[in-house]
Design brief:
By secondary structure, the chain is mainly α. It has a domain at about 40-140: Winged helix-like DNA-binding domain superfamily/Winged helix DNA-binding domain (Arc Repressor Mutant, subunit A, Orthogonal Bundle), CATH 1.10.10.10. The protein contains seven helices and two strands, in the order αααααββαα. It has helices at about 10-15, 15-35, 40-55, 60-65, 70-85, 105-125, 130-145, and strands at about 85-90, 100. The longest helix is centred in the last third of the chain and has 22 residues, at about 105-125. The radius of gyration is 19 Å and the shape is globular.
């Protein structure tokens, strides 16, 4: 198990969930880029994977499958279409919706990226003991899937 390095310059950052999740995300992105050896990003990979699992998804379906917000999904799909990895066509049932499908080139790129994603996961989890891994994955899944209710807007004295 590799030794963890502390890079935060302040104790507040070293214990900040927000900061640590951001740093972990940066590390995951860098590892994926190194393993994939392509311009494919982790979020693009997730979209390709979601479409491969349910070919013909609408962009709303992609949002639901990936948890990526509407405008980012639209932008990512547009980029993947421009790369030639996805194609989209209006559905016959509802001309307002696009059915998104993998192209043969998209299947090829995805097939190359799956081992890169696995290697990235393995590299990230190698920092944890075999006992810590399931606890970490469970906790991370809870954080990623729990919707936190925002407090109602309160009148503030400092508002103009």
């Amino acid at each position: 198990m590799p030794k963890a390095r502390t890079t935060a310059s302040s104790p507040l950052l070293a214990s900040s969930v927000l900061h640590l999740l951001h740093r972990a995300g940066q590390r995951a992105d860098g590892l994926f880029a190194r393993h994939a050896g392509t311009t494919l990003t982790p979020r693009q990979f997730v979209i390709l994977q979601a479409v491969a699992e349910a070919n013909g998804l609408s962009q709303t379906g992609i949002m639901a499958a990936t948890g990526i917000d509407r405008s980012s999904t639209a932008d990512l799909v547009r980029r993947l279409v421009s790369h030639g990895w996805l194609k989209r066509r209006r559905t016959k049932r509802d001309a307002r919706l696009y059915a998104v499908r993998l192209t043969p080139e998209g299947r090829r790129v995805l097939a190359l990226a799956v081992p890169a994603a696995r290697a990235t996961d393995e590299a990230l989890l190698s920092s944890l003991s075999s006992t810590q891994r399931p606890l970490f994955l469970t906790g991370l899944a809870v954080i990623a899937t729990t919707e936190v209710e925002e407090p109602a807007d309160m009148d503030r004295d400092d508002d103009p």
